Amino acid sequence: MSDPITPAISDRICKHMNEDHSNAIVLYAKVFGNLSETETAKMESIDPEGMNLLATIKGETVPLRVKFDHVLKDSEDAHHTLIDMVKQARTSHS
Question: Where does the signal peptide begin and end (predicted)?
Answer without folding.
Answer: none
